[in-house]
What we know:
- With 311 residues, the protein is of the alpha/beta class.
- It is 34% helix and 15% strand.
- The chain is built from ten helices and twelve strands.
- The protein has helices at residues 32-43, 57-69, 91-105, 137-149, 163-171, 192-200, 231-240, 244-255, 266-271, 282-289; strands at residues 8-10, 16-18, 22-23, 47-49, 79-84, 110-115, 120-121, 132-133, 153-159, 180-184, 204-208, 258-259.
- The strands form three sheets. An eight-stranded parallel beta sheet has the order 3-4-5-6-9-10-11-12. The protein has a two-stranded antiparallel ribbon with strand order 1-2. The chain has a two-stranded antiparallel sheet with strand order 7-8.
- The radius of gyration is 19 Å and the shape is globular.
- It starts with 7 loop residues before the first strand and ends in a 22-residue tail after the last helix.
- It binds NADP nicotinamide-adenine-dinucleotide phosphate.
- Residues 23-25, 49, 116, 159-160, 182, 208-214, 216, 228, 243, 245, 260-265, 268, 271-272, 298 line the site of NADP nicotinamide-adenine-dinucleotide phosphate (NAP).
Amino acid sequence: MTSTKIPNIKLNSGFYMPVIGYGTFNSFKENEVRNAARVALEVGYRHIDTAWVYKTEEELGDAITQKIKDGLFERSDLFLASKLWNTHHRPESVEEMCRDSLTSLRTDYLDLYLIHWPFAIKAGEIDGRKPHDDVDFIDTWKAMEELVIKGLVKTIGVSNFNIQQLKRLLAADLRYKPAVNQVEVHPYYTNNELLDYCKQENIVVTAYSPLGRGGTDSSGPGKSLNVHEDKTIQKIATKYNKTTAQIVIRWGIDRGYTLVPKSVTPARIKQNIEIFDFSLTEEEVKTISNLNQDFKCVHLNQYKDYPEYPF
Ligand code: NAP
């Protein structure tokens, strides 16, 4: 199988991250993510995005261990990212949670560890949601810094943080600045203001749901938008003899951020990184950006009234 070399971007921690990672959310059948991750590693992905809450870490650990054993790459060639779940923001829980991810992934360090959401919740459910936990993310961040000092994690960052939350974090007395903010970005949710702010602060943005979940999510305001059915994107795809997914991923790269598309389909896993043999014109980047409709796929609406809910 041919393999694609994915370029790196330098993080403010001094480490390098491949600009496309393999996304691993969510609801997989047994063995599905193990098999798909093997394909991803074979075709050239060297950045894997997971999270404790996805319940994919064990199968990923198997796939990675096997491929290292096969001699495909060494652990140091891989950029492994996971996330601290909202039930474990209390500083005394952070290391335990990180170690849990390390054990499942069968590695002794993470390349990147993110605070998954800015708000904290308690375990156990009342009326279909977990109760709010009054933990300031600054305190959680300090515990994340300890992980770097202990060598459990190379780089730390955040996810789903808005501009005000980033400003408050950056204003605190930090040992390490957040290197990454992983947030939703796709043609129907271009997230321009946040992207500009992160660029100004030298925080690398990673786009999640970069394909807008292909229109499979209908939790938005009564509509479901599908990038693959978009006439503008289809026209540009025809011009370059690429798929709509490849155009959308290339658009992200040409706007200067990193992305973690998810697929369990071998042909799609492969095509989603075969985007380094062309680039879009400035005009085409603008045309796709103009498709924005502020249409988000990810909400966690049940926590809307919690302090630090970010949207
Ligand atoms: P996505 O990557 O935008 O879309 C995934 C969907 O697109 C799947 O249904 C997949 O189908 C399909 N697809 C993938 N490649 C395709 C192609 N080339 N052509 C046509 N369809 C294609 O959505 P996502 O899974 O929500 O986001 C990606 C990753 O971001 C996640 O896996 C996770 O790692 C991360 N994420 C993070 C957060 C956060 O809070 N930090 C939230 C959401 C997601 P098949 O799998 O059937 O091929």
